[in-house]
Protein backbone atom coordinates (compact mmCIF):
# COMPACT_ATOMS: atom_id res chain seq x y z
CA UNK A 1 0.00 0.00 0.00
CA UNK A 2 1.22 3.50 -0.70
CA UNK A 3 2.56 5.38 2.30
CA UNK A 4 2.20 9.05 3.13
CA UNK A 5 5.46 9.14 5.07
CA UNK A 6 7.72 12.09 4.35
CA UNK A 7 11.06 10.64 5.45
CA UNK A 8 13.89 13.13 5.70
CA UNK A 9 16.69 12.42 3.25
CA UNK A 10 20.04 11.95 4.94
CA UNK A 11 23.30 13.12 3.36
CA UNK A 12 25.53 10.29 2.19
CA UNK A 13 27.84 9.02 4.90
CA UNK A 14 31.54 9.72 4.32
CA UNK A 15 33.60 6.76 3.25
CA UNK A 16 35.94 5.79 6.09
CA UNK A 17 39.26 4.05 5.79
CA UNK A 18 38.98 0.34 6.50
CA UNK A 19 39.49 -1.95 8.39
CA UNK A 20 36.84 -0.77 10.81
CA UNK A 21 38.20 0.69 14.06
CA UNK A 22 36.84 -0.65 17.34
CA UNK A 23 33.43 0.64 18.38
CA UNK A 24 33.72 3.68 20.65
CA UNK A 25 32.26 3.71 24.13
CA UNK A 26 28.56 4.38 23.84
CA UNK A 27 27.79 1.51 21.52
CA UNK A 28 28.02 2.87 17.94
CA UNK A 29 30.02 1.16 15.23
CA UNK A 30 30.16 2.05 11.56
CA UNK A 31 28.84 -0.75 9.41
CA UNK A 32 31.41 -2.47 7.20
CA UNK A 33 30.91 -1.68 3.48
CA UNK A 34 29.24 -5.03 2.76
CA UNK A 35 26.56 -4.35 5.39
CA UNK A 36 25.81 -0.72 4.57
CA UNK A 37 22.42 -0.04 2.96
CA UNK A 38 23.77 0.73 -0.51
CA UNK A 39 25.91 -2.45 -0.59
CA UNK A 40 23.82 -4.87 1.43
CA UNK A 41 23.24 -8.30 0.01
CA UNK A 42 19.60 -9.25 -0.69
CA UNK A 43 17.85 -10.82 2.28
CA UNK A 44 17.64 -14.59 2.06
CA UNK A 45 14.16 -15.87 1.26
CA UNK A 46 14.33 -18.27 4.22
CA UNK A 47 16.10 -17.69 7.51
CA UNK A 48 18.67 -20.16 8.84
CA UNK A 49 16.70 -21.94 11.57
CA UNK A 50 19.90 -23.17 13.20
CA UNK A 51 21.31 -19.68 13.71
CA UNK A 52 20.91 -18.39 17.28
CA UNK A 53 19.33 -14.98 17.93
CA UNK A 54 21.69 -12.02 17.67
CA UNK A 55 22.84 -11.45 21.26
CA UNK A 56 24.28 -8.04 20.38
CA UNK A 57 20.83 -6.51 19.80
CA UNK A 58 18.89 -8.51 22.40
CA UNK A 59 17.38 -6.56 25.30
CA UNK A 60 17.11 -7.84 28.87
CA UNK A 61 13.66 -8.87 30.14
CA UNK A 62 13.51 -6.18 32.82
CA UNK A 63 14.08 -3.38 30.31
CA UNK A 64 11.35 -4.56 27.90
CA UNK A 65 8.70 -5.66 30.35
CA UNK A 66 5.25 -5.44 28.76
CA UNK A 67 6.69 -5.23 25.24
CA UNK A 68 6.46 -7.64 22.32
CA UNK A 69 9.85 -7.52 20.60
CA UNK A 70 12.91 -9.19 22.11
CA UNK A 71 15.44 -6.85 20.48
CA UNK A 72 16.03 -3.40 19.05
CA UNK A 73 18.30 -3.79 16.03
CA UNK A 74 19.25 -0.62 14.17
CA UNK A 75 17.04 0.30 11.19
CA UNK A 76 18.04 -1.08 7.82
CA UNK A 77 18.80 2.34 6.27
CA UNK A 78 21.25 3.52 8.94
CA UNK A 79 25.00 3.73 8.23
CA UNK A 80 25.74 3.17 11.94
CA UNK A 81 24.76 0.09 13.90
CA UNK A 82 23.94 0.51 17.60
CA UNK A 83 25.34 -2.38 19.65
CA UNK A 84 25.09 -2.94 23.40
CA UNK A 85 28.39 -3.76 25.08
CA UNK A 86 29.94 -3.29 28.50
CA UNK A 87 32.75 -0.73 28.30
CA UNK A 88 33.67 -1.20 31.94
CA UNK A 89 32.16 2.08 33.08
CA UNK A 90 28.46 1.29 33.22
CA UNK A 91 26.77 -2.02 33.87
CA UNK A 92 23.92 -3.29 31.70
CA UNK A 93 21.80 -3.52 34.86
CA UNK A 94 21.87 0.29 35.16
CA UNK A 95 20.36 0.93 31.72
CA UNK A 96 16.81 2.35 31.95
CA UNK A 97 13.75 0.40 30.75
CA UNK A 98 12.07 1.31 27.49
CA UNK A 99 9.42 3.97 28.09
CA UNK A 100 6.75 5.19 25.70
CA UNK A 101 7.48 8.61 24.19
CA UNK A 102 5.23 10.54 21.81
CA UNK A 103 6.57 12.99 19.24
CA UNK A 104 4.36 15.38 17.28
CA UNK A 105 4.32 14.51 13.57
CA UNK A 106 3.77 17.67 11.54
CA UNK A 107 2.77 15.88 8.35
CA UNK A 108 1.37 18.00 5.53
CA UNK A 109 -1.05 15.42 4.07
CA UNK A 110 -3.19 12.90 5.88
CA UNK A 111 -4.97 10.77 3.24
CA UNK A 112 -2.63 8.08 1.85
CA UNK A 113 -3.49 6.61 -1.54
CA UNK A 114 -2.78 3.13 -2.90
CA UNK A 115 -3.47 1.19 -6.08
CA UNK A 116 -2.98 -2.31 -4.66
CA UNK A 117 -5.18 -4.75 -6.61
CA UNK A 118 -5.76 -7.15 -3.68
CA UNK A 119 -7.27 -4.81 -1.09
CA UNK A 120 -10.72 -3.26 -1.05
CA UNK A 121 -9.84 0.39 -0.47
CA UNK A 122 -7.79 2.99 -2.31
CA UNK A 123 -7.24 5.48 0.53
CA UNK A 124 -6.43 5.35 4.22
CA UNK A 125 -5.52 7.46 7.25
CA UNK A 126 -2.93 6.65 9.92
CA UNK A 127 -3.39 8.90 12.98
CA UNK A 128 -0.19 7.50 14.53
CA UNK A 129 3.18 6.06 13.51
CA UNK A 130 4.34 3.16 15.62
CA UNK A 131 1.99 1.22 17.89
CA UNK A 132 2.13 0.66 21.64
CA UNK A 133 0.14 -2.57 21.39
CA UNK A 134 3.45 -4.24 20.54
CA UNK A 135 2.03 -7.10 18.47
CA UNK A 136 5.04 -9.19 17.54
CA UNK A 137 3.61 -10.14 14.15
CA UNK A 138 2.68 -6.59 13.04
CA UNK A 139 3.52 -6.14 9.35
CA UNK A 140 3.76 -2.34 9.86
CA UNK A 141 6.93 -2.63 11.95
CA UNK A 142 9.36 -2.13 9.01
CA UNK A 143 7.91 1.35 8.37
CA UNK A 144 9.75 2.66 11.45
CA UNK A 145 13.02 2.18 9.58
CA UNK A 146 11.95 5.06 7.30
CA UNK A 147 12.23 7.29 10.37
CA UNK A 148 15.73 6.09 11.26
CA UNK A 149 14.36 3.93 14.08
CA UNK A 150 14.26 0.23 14.85
CA UNK A 151 11.27 -1.91 13.82
CA UNK A 152 11.82 -3.72 17.13
CA UNK A 153 11.29 -2.01 20.48
CA UNK A 154 11.47 1.48 18.96
CA UNK A 155 8.27 0.70 17.02
CA UNK A 156 6.46 0.08 20.31
CA UNK A 157 7.98 2.89 22.34
CA UNK A 158 8.93 5.80 20.06
CA UNK A 159 5.53 6.86 18.77
CA UNK A 160 4.42 9.75 16.59
CA UNK A 161 1.01 11.44 16.80
CA UNK A 162 -0.63 13.60 14.14
CA UNK A 163 -2.73 16.15 16.06
CA UNK A 164 -3.34 18.19 12.89
CA UNK A 165 -4.96 15.21 11.16
CA UNK A 166 -8.58 16.46 11.53
CA UNK A 167 -7.71 19.90 10.11
CA UNK A 168 -5.74 18.34 7.24
CA UNK A 169 -8.57 15.92 6.53
CA UNK A 170 -11.11 18.76 6.31
CA UNK A 171 -8.85 20.61 3.90
CA UNK A 172 -8.33 17.57 1.68
CA UNK A 173 -12.05 16.75 1.60
CA UNK A 174 -12.71 20.29 0.38
CA UNK A 175 -10.28 20.02 -2.54
CA UNK A 176 -11.79 20.66 -5.95
CA UNK A 177 -12.55 17.40 -7.72
CA UNK A 178 -12.34 15.23 -4.59
CA UNK A 179 -14.40 12.07 -5.19
CA UNK A 180 -15.51 10.34 -1.96
CA UNK A 181 -14.86 6.66 -1.36
CA UNK A 182 -14.54 4.71 1.88
CA UNK A 183 -11.48 5.73 3.91
CA UNK A 184 -9.81 2.88 5.80
CA UNK A 185 -8.35 3.60 9.25
CA UNK A 186 -6.34 1.07 11.25
CA UNK A 187 -4.90 -0.88 8.33
CA UNK A 188 -1.34 0.07 9.32
CA UNK A 189 -1.14 1.00 13.02
CA UNK A 190 -4.05 0.87 15.46
CA UNK A 191 -5.94 4.19 15.76
CA UNK A 192 -7.19 3.15 19.23
CA UNK A 193 -3.82 2.27 20.75
CA UNK A 194 -3.34 3.45 24.36
CA UNK A 195 -2.01 6.95 23.55
CA UNK A 196 -5.33 7.73 21.83
CA UNK A 197 -6.88 8.14 25.28
CA UNK A 198 -4.86 11.32 25.73
CA UNK A 199 -4.45 12.63 22.19
CA UNK A 200 -7.95 11.81 20.84
CA UNK A 201 -6.84 12.20 17.22
CA UNK A 202 -9.13 9.39 16.07
CA UNK A 203 -12.19 10.84 17.74
CA UNK A 204 -11.64 14.22 16.10
CA UNK A 205 -11.17 12.52 12.72
CA UNK A 206 -14.51 10.76 13.18
CA UNK A 207 -16.16 14.08 14.02
CA UNK A 208 -14.97 15.50 10.69
CA UNK A 209 -16.16 12.44 8.73
CA UNK A 210 -19.52 12.51 10.51
CA UNK A 211 -19.97 16.24 9.90
CA UNK A 212 -19.46 15.92 6.14
CA UNK A 213 -21.08 12.51 5.62
CA UNK A 214 -17.98 10.62 4.50
CA UNK A 215 -17.85 6.78 4.82
CA UNK A 216 -15.13 5.10 6.89
CA UNK A 217 -14.03 1.54 7.68
CA UNK A 218 -12.17 0.94 10.95
CA UNK A 219 -9.91 -1.94 11.99
CA UNK A 220 -8.76 -2.23 15.60
CA UNK A 221 -8.05 -4.65 18.42
CA UNK A 222 -8.89 -2.17 21.18
CA UNK A 223 -12.00 -1.84 23.32
CA UNK A 224 -11.33 1.92 23.34
CA UNK A 225 -13.44 2.06 20.18
CA UNK A 226 -16.47 2.02 22.51
CA UNK A 227 -15.56 5.52 23.70
CA UNK A 228 -16.71 6.80 20.29
CA UNK A 229 -19.91 4.76 20.21
CA UNK A 230 -21.99 7.95 20.12
CA UNK A 231 -20.40 9.06 16.83
CA UNK A 232 -20.29 5.55 15.37
CA UNK A 233 -23.98 4.91 16.10
CA UNK A 234 -24.93 8.22 14.51
CA UNK A 235 -22.87 7.45 11.40
CA UNK A 236 -24.26 3.91 11.22
CA UNK A 237 -27.80 5.29 10.90
CA UNK A 238 -26.68 6.84 7.58
CA UNK A 239 -24.68 3.77 6.50
CA UNK A 240 -21.36 5.59 6.85
CA UNK A 241 -19.31 3.28 9.07
CA UNK A 242 -18.28 -0.31 9.71
CA UNK A 243 -15.89 -1.63 12.35
CA UNK A 244 -13.75 -4.80 12.36
CA UNK A 245 -12.11 -6.10 15.51
CA UNK A 246 -9.16 -8.46 15.24
CA UNK A 247 -9.37 -11.50 17.53
CA UNK A 248 -6.17 -13.52 17.22
CA UNK A 249 -6.81 -16.03 19.99
CA UNK A 250 -9.19 -16.75 22.86
CA UNK A 251 -6.26 -17.76 25.08
CA UNK A 252 -5.56 -14.70 27.23
CA UNK A 253 -2.06 -15.96 28.10
CA UNK A 254 -1.09 -16.35 24.43
CA UNK A 255 -2.67 -12.98 23.61
CA UNK A 256 -0.63 -11.30 26.34
CA UNK A 257 2.59 -12.73 24.90
CA UNK A 258 1.77 -11.87 21.26
CA UNK A 259 -0.09 -8.57 21.83
CA UNK A 260 1.14 -7.36 25.24
CA UNK A 261 -0.68 -4.01 25.38
CA UNK A 262 -3.80 -4.79 23.36
CA UNK A 263 -7.22 -5.47 24.87
CA UNK A 264 -7.85 -9.01 26.12
CA UNK A 265 -9.87 -11.34 23.86
CA UNK A 266 -12.84 -11.10 26.24
CA UNK A 267 -12.89 -7.30 26.03
CA UNK A 268 -12.72 -7.39 22.23
CA UNK A 269 -15.68 -9.75 22.08
CA UNK A 270 -17.59 -7.50 24.48
CA UNK A 271 -16.79 -4.53 22.23
CA UNK A 272 -18.22 -6.46 19.28
CA UNK A 273 -21.35 -7.17 21.32
CA UNK A 274 -21.86 -3.52 22.23
CA UNK A 275 -21.20 -2.29 18.71
CA UNK A 276 -23.70 -4.75 17.26
CA UNK A 277 -26.29 -3.87 19.92
CA UNK A 278 -25.90 -0.17 19.02
CA UNK A 279 -26.57 -0.89 15.34
CA UNK A 280 -22.97 -0.41 14.19
CA UNK A 281 -22.02 -2.96 11.49
CA UNK A 282 -19.24 -5.03 13.11
CA UNK A 283 -17.13 -7.92 11.86
CA UNK A 284 -14.47 -10.15 13.34
CA UNK A 285 -11.01 -10.60 11.81
CA UNK A 286 -9.25 -13.88 12.63
CA UNK A 287 -5.89 -12.33 11.99
CA UNK A 288 -3.22 -13.31 11.70
CA UNK A 289 -3.63 -17.06 11.42
CA UNK A 290 -0.32 -18.64 12.51
CA UNK A 291 0.09 -22.32 11.62
CA UNK A 292 0.68 -24.58 14.66
CA UNK A 293 0.14 -21.66 17.03
CA UNK A 294 -3.42 -20.35 16.76
CA UNK A 295 -4.87 -21.95 13.62
CA UNK A 296 -6.69 -24.55 15.75
CA UNK A 297 -8.82 -21.72 17.17
CA UNK A 298 -10.45 -20.55 13.93
CA UNK A 299 -13.77 -22.28 14.60
CA UNK A 300 -13.84 -21.32 18.29
CA UNK A 301 -13.21 -17.65 17.53
CA UNK A 302 -16.06 -17.65 15.00
CA UNK A 303 -18.32 -19.39 17.55
CA UNK A 304 -17.54 -16.68 20.11
CA UNK A 305 -18.15 -13.90 17.57
CA UNK A 306 -21.47 -15.43 16.48
CA UNK A 307 -22.57 -15.61 20.12
CA UNK A 308 -22.27 -11.81 20.45
CA UNK A 309 -24.24 -11.12 17.27
CA UNK A 310 -21.50 -10.73 14.65
CA UNK A 311 -22.37 -11.94 11.14
CA UNK A 312 -19.34 -10.96 9.07
CA UNK A 313 -15.81 -12.37 9.30
CA UNK A 314 -12.48 -12.42 7.52
CA UNK A 315 -8.99 -13.83 8.03
CA UNK A 316 -5.38 -13.03 7.08
CA UNK A 317 -2.46 -15.45 7.08
CA UNK A 318 0.66 -14.47 9.03
CA UNK A 319 2.86 -12.05 7.07
CA UNK A 320 6.61 -11.73 7.75
CA UNK A 321 8.01 -8.88 5.61
CA UNK A 322 11.54 -7.58 6.13
CA UNK A 323 12.51 -7.26 9.82
CA UNK A 324 9.27 -8.86 11.04
CA UNK A 325 10.65 -12.27 10.11
CA UNK A 326 13.63 -12.03 12.47
CA UNK A 327 11.60 -10.39 15.25
CA UNK A 328 8.98 -13.14 15.07
CA UNK A 329 11.72 -15.78 14.95
CA UNK A 330 13.32 -14.39 18.12
CA UNK A 331 9.94 -14.29 19.85
CA UNK A 332 9.17 -17.89 18.90
CA UNK A 333 12.53 -19.14 20.15
CA UNK A 334 12.01 -17.33 23.46
CA UNK A 335 8.39 -18.40 24.06
CA UNK A 336 7.83 -21.61 22.08
CA UNK A 337 11.22 -23.24 21.50
CA UNK A 338 9.56 -26.65 21.13
CA UNK A 339 7.36 -25.45 18.25
CA UNK A 340 9.81 -23.08 16.61
CA UNK A 341 10.93 -25.32 13.74
CA UNK A 342 7.47 -26.76 13.12
CA UNK A 343 5.87 -23.31 12.90
CA UNK A 344 8.43 -22.08 10.38
CA UNK A 345 8.17 -25.28 8.36
CA UNK A 346 4.43 -24.75 7.95
CA UNK A 347 4.88 -21.04 7.22
CA UNK A 348 7.25 -21.92 4.38
CA UNK A 349 4.77 -24.43 3.01
CA UNK A 350 2.27 -21.58 2.67
CA UNK A 351 4.82 -19.29 0.98
CA UNK A 352 6.38 -21.50 -1.67
CA UNK A 353 9.40 -22.42 0.47
CA UNK A 354 10.09 -18.83 1.51
CA UNK A 355 9.40 -17.07 4.79
CA UNK A 356 7.22 -14.52 2.99
CA UNK A 357 5.83 -13.87 -0.47
CA UNK A 358 4.59 -10.33 -1.11
CA UNK A 359 3.00 -11.11 -4.48
CA UNK A 360 -0.40 -9.55 -5.15
CA UNK A 361 -3.18 -11.96 -4.32
CA UNK A 362 -0.90 -14.21 -2.25
CA UNK A 363 0.37 -12.04 0.59
CA UNK A 364 -2.91 -12.21 2.54
CA UNK A 365 -3.79 -15.90 2.10
CA UNK A 366 -0.64 -17.69 0.91
CA UNK A 367 -0.62 -20.73 -1.34
CA UNK A 368 -0.13 -24.49 -1.28
CA UNK A 369 -1.93 -27.29 0.60
CA UNK A 370 -1.53 -25.84 4.12
CA UNK A 371 -2.83 -22.42 3.09
CA UNK A 372 -5.67 -24.05 1.13
CA UNK A 373 -6.65 -26.11 4.19
CA UNK A 374 -6.73 -23.01 6.42
CA UNK A 375 -8.82 -21.13 3.89
CA UNK A 376 -11.22 -24.01 3.38
CA UNK A 377 -11.67 -24.49 7.13
CA UNK A 378 -12.48 -20.81 7.48
CA UNK A 379 -14.99 -20.92 4.62
CA UNK A 380 -16.76 -24.01 5.99
CA UNK A 381 -16.86 -22.56 9.51
CA UNK A 382 -18.38 -19.32 8.21
CA UNK A 383 -20.94 -21.21 6.12
CA UNK A 384 -21.97 -23.38 9.05
CA UNK A 385 -22.45 -20.36 11.33
CA UNK A 386 -24.19 -18.16 8.79
CA UNK A 387 -21.38 -15.63 8.34
CA UNK A 388 -20.95 -13.43 5.26
CA UNK A 389 -24.41 -14.08 3.81
CA UNK A 390 -24.50 -10.33 3.15
CA UNK A 391 -21.78 -7.71 3.18
CA UNK A 392 -22.10 -4.18 4.55
CA UNK A 393 -21.92 -1.62 1.75
CA UNK A 394 -21.25 1.96 2.77
CA UNK A 395 -22.65 4.91 0.85
CA UNK A 396 -21.26 8.23 -0.38
CA UNK A 397 -24.72 9.71 -0.94
CA UNK A 398 -24.51 11.84 2.21
CA UNK A 399 -21.18 13.46 1.39
CA UNK A 400 -21.23 17.25 1.44
CA UNK A 401 -17.72 18.69 1.00
CA UNK A 402 -16.46 21.35 3.40
CA UNK A 403 -16.50 24.89 2.09
CA UNK A 404 -13.04 26.00 1.13
CA UNK A 405 -11.58 28.85 3.16
CA UNK A 406 -11.60 31.36 0.27
CA UNK A 407 -14.98 30.25 -1.06
CA UNK A 408 -17.79 32.83 -0.92
CA UNK A 409 -21.14 32.00 0.64
CA UNK A 410 -23.83 31.28 -1.95
CA UNK A 411 -27.06 33.30 -2.02
CA UNK A 412 -29.19 30.34 -3.09
Question: What this model shows, in words?
Answer:
The structure is a single chain. This protein has 412 residues and is an alpha/beta fold. The protein has a domain at 101-385: pyruvate-formate lyase- activating enzyme (Alpha-Beta Horseshoe), CATH 3.80.30.30. Helix content is 27%, strand content 12%. The chain contains eleven helices and twelve strands. The protein has helices at residues 153-157, 165-173, 196-199, 201-212, 229-236, 252-258, 265-277, 298-307, 323-335, 340-350, 368-385; strands at residues 28-30, 80-82, 101-104, 111-113, 123-125, 128-129, 158-161, 183-185, 216-220, 241-246, 282-289, 313-317. The strands form three sheets. The protein has a seven-stranded mixed sheet with strand order 4-5-8-9-10-11-12. A three-stranded mixed sheet has the order 3-7-6. Strand 9 (216-220), helix 5 (229-236) and strand 10 (241-246) form a beta-alpha-beta unit. Helix 8 (298-307) packs parallel to helix 11. The radius of gyration is 23 Å and the shape is globular. Mean pLDDT is 88; it is low at 1-28.
